[in-house]
Write a structure and sequence with these properties.
The chain is of the alpha/beta class. The chain has 2 helices and 8 strands; from the N terminus they run E-E-H-E-E-E-E-H-E-E.
């Protein structure tokens, strides 16, 4: 399955106060931009008020997604997977892994634990603007 990063602008109704203009980023699993855009709009419809715009939908290459029950933020990490060819030459392949955690140090700890038995090097880890990840059902 493919993942798409969508940016959405809308007015969010929060209680009885005046609606707030929000711009949010989501990662949605699906087959096409149209498919994931419709799914995201269905998911957010109860909170939307007024005009809605999805100015950006782009395909994202991810090696893995590591969710966490304790996490409330998403962190994007760049990891170099290391393999050694028969000739003895070292080969590195850069991949992206999305990690959910409360802090960047928690994300680093989770990532290190997950990759414990893998020959790799964590190159970077940064806070992602992604608010939530919507996985395909079934």
């Amino acid at each position: 399955m493919l993942f798409y990063e969508l940016k959405i602008s809308y007015q969010r109704q929060t209680g009885e106060s005046t609606p707030n203009n929000v711009k949010e980023t989501y990662l949605v699993e699906g087959l096409t931009c149209a498919d994931v855009e419709n799914r995201l709009l269905d998911e957010l419809r109860p909170y939307m008020f007024g005009e809605t715009e999805v100015p950006s939908c782009k395909k994202v290459q991810l090696y893995d997604i590591i969710p966490s029950a304790e996490g409330d933020k998403w962190f994007k990490s760049r990891v170099e997977m290391i393999t050694v060819e028969e000739s003895g030459k070292e080969k590195r392949k850069a991949v992206s892994i999305l990690v959910e955690a409360a802090t960047i140090s928690d994300a680093m700890k989770t990532l290190t634990e997950k990759l414990n038995n893998v020959d790799c090097e964590i190159v970077s880890i940064t806070r992602s603007p992604i608010l939530d990840v919507l996985r395909a059902v079934g």
